[in-house]
Specification:
about 230 residues; alpha+beta; Beta-Lactamase; 2 domains; 7 helices; about 30% helix; elongated; Regulator
Length: about 230
């Protein structure tokens, strides 16, 4: 029989017993082969289905099914690994879409902040500051970055509103900052700013060794308001 077409009704009432329904009923991978499909539909097919679950809720969201021509042996279905990997990928995508914006911003910060880099994540109301950024950037500079992030959120709908921007640190520290928008579900929710020495300015190396404002080493951390 033919493989199901897009939009096909796969209820047991329409097509009889099949692996997708069985997988949902059992809560685990399930296979059906040829004559096990009770109705005439798919009598010449073998199928394996893996359930897909909603993130956090534990409710089934659907299944992933792999089909092959009917096999004479009873060996495990050759599409099992593909179905399981695809189901896992779908669950990972669902989990990513379900993350709150704050988690997305934190993940973006962590991706940019290995090995002591000077990184700040901002969303207009809070900021995450790495140890490198706390050492290199003054409070005034951090406030200026916050204003730029707020402007970036405001202008996100412009034609170039989602491109990274690069600009010098305005307090003469010999640094340049690359600010990259963070997008979640199609909307800009914040930005990650990475500071690095300006190759054209020799004062950057000295700035990198200078503690924060007031001569005291400032600690990295999270600051915000609501």
């Amino acid at each position: 029989g033919p493989a199901p077409a897009a939009g096909c009704d796969l209820s047991e009432r329409a097509v009889g017993h099949h692996s997708a329904v069985l997988a949902l009923r059992l809560g685990r991978r399930a296979e059906t082969h040829g004559p096990e499909h009770v109705l005439d539909v798919w009598q010449e097919l073998s199928a394996v289905s893996v359930p897909v679950y909603e993130p956090g809720a534990g409710r089934p969201a659907g299944t992933v099914t792999a089909l092959t021509p009917l096999r004479e042996d009873r060996a495990p279905h050759p599409g099992t690994a593909l179905a399981e990997a695809t189901a896992l990928a779908v669950e990972s995508e669902l989990l990513g879409r379900a993350r709150p914006p704050e988690r997305v911003l934190l993940d973006a910060y962590l991706r940019h902040a290995p090995e002591g880099r000077a990184v700040v994540a901002l969303d207009g109301s809070s900021r995450i500051v790495s140890s490198g950024a706390a050492r290199l950037l003054s409070d005034e500079t951090l406030t200026g970055l916050e204003r730029r992030a707020t402007a970036l959120l405001r202008d996100a709908g412009a034609a170039d509103g989602r491109r990274p921007r690069e600009f010098p640190v305005p307090d003469g520290a010999g640094l340049v900052v690359r600010m990259t928008p963070v997008v979640h579900e199609g909307e800009v929710i914040g930005a990650v700013a990475v500071a690095r020495p300006d190759p054209a300015d020799g004062t950057a190396a000295a700035a990198a060794r200078t503690p924060g404002r007031g001569g005291e080493e400032r600690l990295p951390g999270l600051a915000g308001a609501s």
